[in-house]
Each structure stands twice: as C-alpha cells, then as structure tokens.
Specification:
alpha+beta, six-stranded antiparallel beta sheet, two-stranded antiparallel sheet, 8 strands, globular
Length: about 375
C-alpha cells in the first residue's frame, strides 16, 4: 500500500533524478499521518469523556497517573518526587497532549514551520519514553509509537541534526516533474486501497453490529483502528496464579512456571495482569469463559507446555508430569500513597490434565490436595 513508486528512494528511482532531501508525498504518507492523528485524538478524547473523570483535576478518589505510575523503580522515584498532588496536576496534560499534538504537527507541516513540528515530535516521544520507564511491559509499545512519529519529520532533518550536509550537486539537479495524469497512474491503486480501508473502518466503527465485531472475523483486526485503552483511572490490579500438582506430589505454580506458589503481589508491590505471565499472551486469561472443546484446548495447553518444558517424557523426569491445576485470578484495589487493599481471589477453572472431559460435571470427592493453599487435605 505504501510502496513509494516514483519516489527518491523507490525501486524505480534510477529512472529519474531526485533531491533526496525533499519530503516524498503519496497517498500512503498522507493516510499514515491522518491515521496517527485519529488514533491519538481518539485516545485523548476517550480520557476526556471518561464518566468517572479519572483524567481531570477533580478525579475521585485518585487521578489516573496516581494509579498507573507505580509499576517500576523509575515510577516510584517519580511518585516520591512529585507526590500525589503533583501527579494530580500532571494528569490532565496527557489528555490535551494526545488530542492536539498530532493536529499541531500537521499544521506545522502545512505552514512549513520546522520548530512546531520538531517540538511536537519531541514532546510526544518524551511522553512515550516516560511511559516506557514508568509502566511495565510498555517498552515495545512506546518504541513503535516513537517510530510512527518519524513520518512527521520535515525535509532536511539530516542536515538539521548534523548527520549530513548540503551538497552542491543537488543544487544543479533538475527535478523530474509529473503531471496530474502521471501522478494518478502511479498512485491510483494505492489511493483506491487506502480509501477502501478508510470506508471499511467507518463502517466497522459506526454501522457494524456486534457479530461483525467478533474477534473470529479477520476484518475485525484489519478495521479496528482505535486505541481506547487507559481511558480511566486503574481502580484495581489483577494477576494470576495456577497451583498445580505434579506426579511426584509436589505443588508448583504452572502459570509463572515456578517451583513455589506465591500468593503475594508480584513485581515488588507493583502488580499488573502480565507481571507473572512468563511470556504468555497478555489476553490469555480473558478467554477463561470458553467451554466445551474450545475450553479443553485452552486449558490443556498449559498441561502440554509444562510437560514439554520439563521433558517429562525423558527417563528420570516422570515425576515432573503435571496432573492437575487450579487457575486463580487475584485482585487488589488501588489505594492512595502507593497502597493496595487486601488481596481477593477467585477460582476461574479447575483442570485435570489426564482427563478429556473437564467440562462435564463430575464428582471430585476423591480430591487429595487443596490447591488454594497448596496443602494436603
């Protein structure tokens, strides 16, 4: 879609002479800028319209940043320096930065002001770098977001930052000019594809029904262009554990792949859903409502994974075979001054790795272990 045919760095660039310092404009680059502007506006407006006003000065009981900036060493240092009042004052700035920085960058590009463009890019990248340092599991997300902002960089950025210098050769180059018919011929297909996706996104967000928005349809992934997360203050934190019994009688945590079951908050007092998931998909626990064959496949995977990673089929490792486990979701309310409430636990699923009928009601009267405590009955 974004193949820069007829551009300075395109596959057919040898046909023409170009000034490589110039910004290449195509339907793809325009659409990407508009998409980034929409995503940030949508994210900012979602925070602005939060019914609980978690991103305002009047947030009760806690502003959003007070609940999110708790997850890393840098976050705790920041919390100690700014305190609850400082974070309360900083919270609304995130909303307006997300809503207006991208439009300002577009305006700067339109009027040709590099200062405006550079200021907005530096500002938004600074926010993302701050997120990477203060929230767990956001480094990759923040890095991708910073790369996306490179599309707004103006022409001559290499010269501006000292990576390159002007060449007299470019002053003698006669640029190849294209007429409207040539432009349409080269960019007509990409324009059509982009317009199709844009119309599809509008249909998906405004007119499609719940069935069409199911994750089972590939178009749900292709057309879902929203980033409406972190729209409110985090009222509680969640994490999971899965105490399981091995063939040798020992109790392990299948979820965190640990030989010990720890009911305390993971992450040095800064838990989150993914803190102790040991590299698994973040949304795995959210599929817990699956039943029947789908549920059997979902939970049996943990049995197979444990057995494979512990090589139970090799001689001498038979005692490490996983027989059964209980999957718990734990939750604690976020309190002021970096505090958390007492932990609540909820049993999500009990699974017998040796059975193929875990979703058929049966009497477990012969149970010999209390997985909730890891103790023998």
């Amino acid at each position: 879609m974004f193949l820069p045919l007829d551009g300075a760095h395109a596959i057919d660039a040898k046909k023409y002479k170009y000034d490589h310092r110039k910004t290449f404009i195509s339907p793809g680059t325009i659409a990407l800028k508009v998409l980034i502007t929409w995503l940030y506006w949508d994210a900012g407006y979602g925070k602005y319209s939060d019914p609980l006003q978690g991103w305002t000065l009047n947030a009760k009981p806690l502003p959003a940043l007070d609940t999110y900036v708790r997850h890393t060493v840098v976050a705790r240092i920041m919390y100690g320096l700014l305190g609850p009042s400082g974070l309360r004052l900083m919270t609304p700035t995130v909303v307006y930065a997300e809503m207006f920085c991208a439009p300002v960058a577009l305006l700067g590009s339109l009027v040709g002001s590099k200062r405006i463009v550079y200021a907005t890019i530096i500002g938004m990248c600074s926010i993302h770098i701050g997120i990477a340092f203060t929230m767990r599991n956001t480094v990759l997300l923040s890095s991708v977001a910073c790369v996306a902002w490179c599309i707004f960089l103006p022409s001559g950025v290499g010269t501006d930052v000292g990576f390159s210098s002007e060449s007299k050769h470019y002053k003698r180059v006669k640029l190849h000019q294209h007429g409207a018919s040539t432009w349409a011929k080269r960019h007509g297909l990409s324009t059509l594809i982009i317009a199709t996706f844009a119309c599809g996104s509008v249909w998906f967000e405004m007119f499609s029904d719940q069935c069409n928005q199911s994750h089972k349809h590939i178009w749900s992934t292709l057309l879902h262009n929203r980033w409406n997360v972190f729209v409110g203050a985090e009222e509680y934190v969640t994490w999971e554990i899965a105490p399981g019994q091995l063939a040798d009688g020992s109790i392990v945590d299948v979820w965190s792949k640990s030989d010990e079951v720890n009911w305390n908050m993971p992450g040095a007092g800064a838990p989150c859903t993914s803190t102790a998931r040991a590299g698994r998909w973040r949304s795995y626990p959210y599929l817990a409502e699956l039943e029947g064959e789908d549920g059997e496949v979902l939970w049996s995977y943990l049995c197979r994974q444990w057995d494979e990673e512990n090589r139970v089929h090799e001689a001498g490792n038979e005692g490490k075979k996983l027989l059964k486990f209980n999957f718990f979701m734990l939750q604690a309310d976020v309190k002021p001054n970096m505090g958390f409430s007492a932990t609540r636990k909820r049993l999500i699923h009990s699974h017998d790795c040796l059975s193929k009928t875990n979703f058929v009601e049966k009497d477990d009267g012969n149970e010999t272990f209390d997985f909730a405590k890891g103790e023998e009955l």
